[in-house]
Amino acid sequence: MNFVALLIPALFLGLFAFALVKKVKLYDCFTEGAKEAVPLILSVFPYLAAMLILSELFSASGLADMLTGFLSPCFEFLGIPPEIAPLVLVKPFSGSGSTALLSELFAAYGPDSYIGRCAAVAYGSGETVFYISAVYFAGSKKKLARPIAVSLVANFLGVVLGCLLCRVL
Amino acid sequence: MNAVFSAVFLAACLLFLVNDPNAFLPAMLKGAEKAALLALSLLTVYCVWLGFFKVLEVSGLSEKLSRRVRPLAKKLFRSDDGIALGLASSNLSANMLGLPGAPTPLGIRATEAFLRKNNGHAADMLFVLNATSLQILPTTVIALRLAAGSASPADIFLPTLLTTLFTTLSGVLLLLLSEKFRRPHRRHGIGQSRLSFKRSMRT
After folding, report:
1. Considering its fold, how many domains does chain B have in total?
2. For labelling, which of B33, B51, B183, B190 has a CA lying 20 to 30 Å from the CA of A31?
């Protein structure tokens, strides 16, 4: 953990020292880069909003719970504990939502239990697929069904494998 | 995306109508509010990292670093676009290091650069790599386990690493496979979607 804490300051220090040696005007250069943040956010915002409204509707309408109830038998068949089904379903939509679910699972079952470990692996190895697609392809008219389906399938296979690994490792 | 959005939206709408019509608008506003807050926090993160990456670029270090991985990136993304490949390589390294927030602005710009050259394959590949998580150290999970009183918070490291390696590899393989299977479709006369795909790529 200490190593991770050191990494980011060390990266900045190393780069800025190197840049000074190369006679880069640090202040001008840094602000030049930071300037790009505003147009980037503006172009991404509508897609972000649509995505988060959708994920809010998904959980608040009870749709997520319905799907969970419907899918848990299938999950159980594949070796995924049904308790972590909501986490697996919410993860592709929302990072903060799945983080909240992960803490809840830790609080309810304990972080060292089988369920807790499965949840940790499912969370750590998965990604917020829809969020990333909304942000990366903001404004492009490209068809996204294939790459999104591929990512979802890969992430789901990962959850199956992760739960298996939690049993043997 | 349009299909997923419509399907989830309509299903949720129906459930709200039946169960609790008053909660519909607040839920939507809540989502938009989250987006506004997230955009604000992303703005701060992008400011810091885009400044950092500008320095990286101007100092010539990013060119030096990306030259090493260039041959691999060229093959993976099937692209000769130096700038886009550099952005994509930095995106992947930032992902692996788990620098919070850093990969996104790079990924967005790399995707834009790939799409400008009509390289749909590269954009898809970069997306799949990002959407299957490359992170080597699951920092968030370890921190949460620590907070929840785990006896050994980091013992999740190995299964997570193996799993995430597996998801990334299977994502790449599935993408390549799905690209292989596109071609026969055209021959069997279901090529309309492919054509419109190409057309939409051009716009």
Report:
1. 1
2. B33
